[in-house]
Design a protein that fits this description.
Shape: globular
Catalytic activity: a sn-glycero-3-phosphodiester + H2O = an alcohol + sn-glycerol 3-phosphate + H(+)
EC number: 3.1.4.46
Strand content: 5-15%
InterPro entries: GP_PDE_dom, PLC-like_Pdiesterase_TIM-brl
Pfam family, one: GDPD
Bound molecules: 2-acetamido-2-deoxy-beta-D-glucopyranose
Order of helices and strands: HEHHEHEEHHEEHHHHEHHEHEEEHEHEH
Number of strands: 13
Radius of gyration: 21 Å
Oligomer: single chain
Enzyme class: hydrolase
Distance between the termini: 32 Å
Largest sheet: 8 strands, mixed, barrel
Number of helices: 16
Length: about 425
């Protein structure tokens, strides 16, 4: 269980993704930086002079919609103005579709795309640093660690090349190296070449990355260091940096983390987000729905399931998308809903053929890319989501600006 329980994340409103230590740079030369010239930690309203840029993708999606009132409305917003919005959460930074995840560059692009909240998943280093990395043991697939022989030698499972019977294998964890060593790495797109006979060939992104539930067993946690220690260190990192709790949206897949924050750090706990992935199968889905009232009763205010939990198909040919029992129950018990992850499934005409998780509850109703905004519109107008995680923040920002969505408001949880 260490794999999920040691994964803590936070989303920080309108600032750098960095807490304790920055993510590796993609280009080795420049120093770690936040939004140079725009904002820094502790400045309450940093966006006034921040210019965002959405690129062509939102226009492509609107153009591909069939005629509807929604399409007309979205077309009417083509010329902006567009502003940063906390409705848009930059998933692993916010430009993960094309830029290495959890990197400074990814987060800066997410902000440029209007993501008002930027996510950093944290992992622990050998000297108890907290760094932005989705999985404890994904360094071989998300960084160039194998090209640093001195660091590659420290990997929990050193590289073995592919041969006639076995694929290439290697596991490198953040707990294998110090924070200073981590900061010498460069990020890369998550993926690897299972046929690789050399570490250079292993870098090619053919398969998506490490399975954290399999690899995290190799993480070397400091002796005596517990999940509770981790949950406290995590919050204290923000406190020690003087970051206003109102700007910090702590997240965890592990409910006891949230209960600890509610008990010991209520100003953070009140707006902490419970990431729920407990309902992936038809039998566990019903159990996940049944648990929602008790989660709310324990003080959790915000729940974040994947958006396939929130939608279902209806109508004689399954062509209508409607809120699911999870969505209506969460709303009925007073939980606010954030959901994930938009722009992580490739072309919509292929989601069924390629068995894309996020559309799994509405496969029959989804046929073309233009329906992306129909799905988002149902999540906003019918489910009532407060914010959306996305791998390409521009798409969500366009919609949010068109409908005047500002995202979750910290004052609602005080
Ligand atoms: C949307 O794109 C698909 C795939 O390119 C195309 O087949 C379809 O005709 C487009 N729909 C509209 C309304 O433009
Ligand atoms: C192939 O690789 C595996 C795992 O690294 C190893 O156990 C096996 O002996 C290798 N086979 C040959 C023929 O080298
Ligand atoms: C994957 O690795 C093998 C063996 O090193 C190499 O021959 C092959 O070209 C690599 N694949 C790609 C796409 O680079
Ligand atoms: C509609 O979807 C349900 C569940 O996904 C399935 O059991 C049913 O066969 C579908 N109906 C049609 C007409 O495709």
């Amino acid at each position: 269980m260490l794999s999920t329980s040691f994964g803590l994340m936070a989303m920080v409103s309108l600032l750098e993704v960095v807490h304790a230590a920055p993510a590796p740079q993609n280009s080795g030369s420049s120093a770690p930086q936040a939004y140079t010239g725009h904002t820094s930690i502790g400045v309450p309203n940093p966006v006034e002079d921040y210019y965002i840029s959405l690129g062509p993708r939102p226009y492509y999606l609107v153009n591909n919609m069939t005629d509807s009132a929604l399409k007309t409305k979205l077309e009417s917003c083509a010329n902006g103005p567009f502003q940063i919005t906390d409705f848009t959460i930059g998933h692993r930074g916010g430009s993960t579709l094309q830029i290495p995840e959890e990197s400074v560059e990814n987060a800066m692009a997410g902000a440029r795309f209007g993501a008002g909240i930027l996510e950093c998943d944290t992992s622990l280093t050998a000297d108890k640093g907290l760094v932005c990395r989705h999985s404890l043991c994904d360094l071989a697939t998300t960084t160039d660690i194998l090209l640093h022989p001195n660091l590659a030698a420290k990997c929990a499972v050193p590289f073995t090349p592919a041969n006639g019977t076995h694929p290439a294998n290697v596991v490198c964890c953040t707990t294998d190296i110090t924070t200073a060593e981590y900061l010498t790495l460069c990020s890369k797109m998550d993926g690897y070449n299972a046929s690789a006979k050399t570490v250079q060939d292993y870098q090619i992104e053919l398969k998506s990355g490490a399975d954290d539930t399999v690899t995290a067993q190799y993480a070397k946690y400091p002796a005596g260091y517990t999940q509770e220690d981790y949950a406290r260190q995590f919050v204290n990192t923000f406190i020690n940096k003087g970051i206003d709790p109102a700007r910090v949206w702590m997240q965890s897949f592990n409910p006891p983390d949230i209960y600890l924050w509610l008990e010991e750090f209520p100003e953070f706990g009140r707006q902490a987000v419970y990431l729920d992935e407990s309902g992936d199968h038809p039998d566990t889905y019903a159990a996940a729905v049944a648990l929602l009232p008790s989660i709310k009763a324990k003080g959790v205010n915000i729940i974040a399931p994947p958006f396939n939990y929130l939608l279902m198909e209806a109508g004689p040919d399954n062509q209508t998308i409607v809120p699911s029992s999870y969505a209506t129950t969460a709303k009925a018990v007073g939980l606010d809903i954030i959901t994930w992850t938009f722009e992580r499934s490739g072309p919509l005409d292929q989601v069924k053929a390629t068995d894309q998780y996020y559309y799994s509850s509405i496969f029959d109703a989804v046929h073309t890319d233009g329906q992306m905004y129909e799905v988002l519109d149902i999540l906003v107008q019918q489910v009532g989501i407060k914010a959306m995680f996305t791998d390409w923040a521009a798409t969500v920002t366009y919609y949010a600006n068109c409908f005047g969505l500002h995202g979750p408001n910290s004052a609602d949880y005080q």
